[in-house]
Structure formats: C-alpha cells, structure tokens
Amino acid sequence: MKNLAVLILFSMGAGQEASFAKDPEWNQWRGPNRDGHSPDTGLLKEWPEEGPPLAWKTTKIGAGYSSVSFVKDRIFTMGDVEDGCALIALDPADGKTLWTAKVGEPGGGGGYPGPRCTPATDGKLVFALGQFGDLICVEVGSGKERWRKHLQQDFGGKVMSGWGYAESPLLDGDHLICTPGGSKGTVLALKKEDGEPVWRSEDFRDPASYASLVPAEIGGVRQYIVLTDRRVAGVEAKSGKLLWKARRAGRTAVAATPIIHDGFVFVSSGYGVGCNGFKVSASDGAFTVEEVYSGKQLQIHHGGVIRVGNHVYGLDDRQGLKCIELKTGNEVWRERSVGKGSITYADGHFFAWGERGKVALVEATPEGYKEKGRFDPPEARNQGAFAHPTVFGGKLYIRDQSVLLCYDVKAKK
C-alpha cells in the first residue's frame, strides 16, 4: 500500500458515510444520501419478455441529460426547450408539464448540448444548474424565481475541460453546496433561501470536474467528498476547510460520483483511467489518507457506481456490468449485459440502462450475473442516453434526450 498524502497525524480512527435522509424522498441526484439506493420495495422480481408496462411518456422536456427528482406532486428535470435551458416540473400521474423556468442559454457542451444537472428540492424550493454555470432557485408550486447566481461570472469558476457544468448541486440542510472550481476555491456553500455565500474552500482550488459532491462523516467530522481531475479530497461541511486530499489524476472527463463506506473512499473514471480505493482515518480532528489500490478493474465514464454490502457495481466502459470488492479492488465477476451505460438500485436489483437502448433487471449479488429481464424501449430514440435511470414510487423512469418514459415496476398482489 502506498501512502499518498498525510495531513498532520497518523490515526487508527474509523469513519463511515453519513445518512442525512429524513424521509424516503428522492429529492436530488442519486437520492437523499447520493448512493443510488431507492427506498422502494415490493417491486417486480422478473420482467415479462416485452418489459414492464408503460405508464406514460412525454416528449416535451427538450434535449439534455438530466435525470429526475421528486417531491409530492411534482417531478423535476431539465432540458433545452424552445426558449433556452429550462427547469421543468411534471405531473407524476401523466407526465404533463406543469411549469417551466428558464435557467440560461441552450446548447454548449462540446458537441453534447443540453443540461446535465438533476434538480434538488426541499419541498418548497427547487434548485438547478445549467451547462453554462447558471444556478437558479425557484418555488416548487409555481416555478417563480427566488434567486439566481452564475458560477463563473459571480464566483470566478473554472471547469476542467470544455463540456460545461455537469454536477448536481447538493442540498444539505439550510445550504446548497456546489463546485464552481477555480482559484478562489473548488467548493462553495450558499444559503438556500437567498443564494448568499456561506463559505468557500479557499485552501482547495482545483478546477471543477463533472462529478457531484457526496456528504460523509469520517472520524466524527461531517464533510463533503469532492473528486476533481487532479485529486480526491474532503472539505469540512461547516467551514469549507480542507481536511484531507490525495493525488488521483483523471483524464478528459471525471464524472462518476464517489462512494464512501466505513472510512473507505472509492472513485472511478473513464478514458482508460480506472479506479482507486483510499482509506481515510482521523484522530483528534487530524486526517490521514492512504491509497489501498489503483487499477483498471472498473472504468466508469458517466454511468455511476453503486455499493451493495462490501461490493461495488458499475457498467464498465468496455466490459459491461462488473462486480468488485470495495476494500481490495478484486474483480468478482463481469458480464456484457447492456454494455456501457448507467445503473440504479432498488429492492435487491440493479436497473441497467445501456447507452444504445437496452434496459435490464439484474439481481444485486456477488454470486454472479443473474439477469431477471430485458427489453428495448421502442419509444426511446437510441441517441446515446447518458441520463441515469431512476426508480421511485413503484415506477422506473428512463430518459433518452427529449423522451421520458415511465414504467410500472410494482409487483401486483
């Protein structure tokens, strides 16, 4: 094992990911704990040959890569519509548009136009980030704008390469946390009510990557885990102070959300880079970080990684769905499955959505690949879908650019 970075003291202190969810709402990117675990139970354990029944579809959300979030009688997503990049509220009963709120200009993204952010909501306000750095807060019921900021113009932000802002800002209590990146500090906390700055990570100044922040508690200290194209680090939640960092070079696009469990941090990215496992320890508020492994066991471009138990799973860029041991990096199994794509988890299964159109239900087990159904949504456009699937309220949501499909995956009694 190679010691990459040490901050002050060596320690045998333990740590674990924080659980900040107060209720089982899917109110932001990858759910309230950002782990990709849906609270749903009682779902279909196998799919019919034609796939689960389609509840509804909409083609009114415009181009983009945003997935969906929820609060009571609203679904939120984003898309490039006629008058620009927009935050969109939909009716969960039929997918009809309830309101739209302009975020910024459309297009951009180095040949991949459209927003990437999944909106976050506290039930009263909803927050969204456009691909050019426009950050807005609107009212849930009406879409009326409450405040607006710009990550570059207002905060001197900088992104690692030319595809624009792609993170989904983290809603945590009274604060909205985001990563403008750049020389003034990578991470920024704002008051959710009015958008005024609370703190900036002045001692951590990497450009922003495309990965989203993850909340964690390690050594009794609440912090946000940030992944850039240069490092992985932890900043203190109450102040933005840099707690620890480790060198970890990415390439071209660094997009996958980190995984944190029991003081262990797992990161992965594509373009031939692969994955790394780090052990973070703390003693008396001082942190050490040690690289446990690095390799190409799991190369994730954009499709995310899910931890279940002591294993992590993801759709590798080249080798399909893979299972590896979290703390050793050892590969357990691999299967081509739906190829490169994205996954989410619910009720003991993965829902795998391939970039080119296939959807599969796969049992979440280290014992081997066990597929429980597969279908090719005829309504999707197969344009290279990057939006992650979402399972919530007994429904599976699949997006392919301007097409959003809602499938009924609840088991019938």
Helix content: under 10%
Query: Helix- and strand-based class?
Result: mainly beta
Biggest pleated-sheet summary? 5 strands, antiparallel
Rg: 20 Å
The total count of helices amounts to 0
Shape descriptor reads globular
Which strand-content bin applies to the residues?
Answer: 35-45%
Mean pLDDT: 93
Low-confidence segments:
1-24
| Total strands | 34
How far do the termini sit from each other? 52 Å
Q: Major sheet: order of its strands?
A: 1-23-22-21-20
What structural keywords apply?
413 residues, mainly beta, globular
Structure commentary:
With 413 residues, the protein is mainly β. It has no helices and 34 strands. It has strands at residues 2-6, 15-16, 54-58, 69-71, 74-81, 84-90, 97-104, 120-121, 125-129, 134-139, 145-150, 170-172, 175-178, 188-191, 197-200, 214-218, 221-227, 231-236, 242-247, 259-261, 264-269, 274-283, 286-295, 305-308, 311-316, 320-325, 331-335, 341-346, 349-354, 359-363, 371-375, 390-392, 395-400, 403-408. Residues 1-24 have low confidence and may be disordered.
In a nutshell, what does this entry contain?
The protein is mostly beta strands. 0% of the residues lie in helices and 44% in strands.
SSE diagram, text form:
Blueprint: E1 2-6, E2 15-16, E3 54-58, E4 69-71, E5 74-81, E6 84-90, E7 97-104, E8 120-121, E9 125-129, E10 134-139, E11 145-150, E12 170-172, E13 175-178, E14 188-191, E15 197-200, E16 214-218, E17 221-227, E18 231-236, E19 242-247, E20 259-261, E21 264-269, E22 274-283, E23 286-295, E24 305-308, E25 311-316, E26 320-325, E27 331-335, E28 341-346, E29 349-354, E30 359-363, E31 371-375, E32 390-392, E33 395-400, E34 403-408
Antiparallel strand pairs: 1-23, 2-16, 3-34, 4-5, 5-6, 6-7, 8-9, 9-10, 10-11, 12-13, 13-14, 14-15, 16-17, 17-18, 18-19, 20-21, 21-22, 22-23, 24-25, 25-26, 26-27, 28-29, 29-30, 30-31, 32-33, 33-34
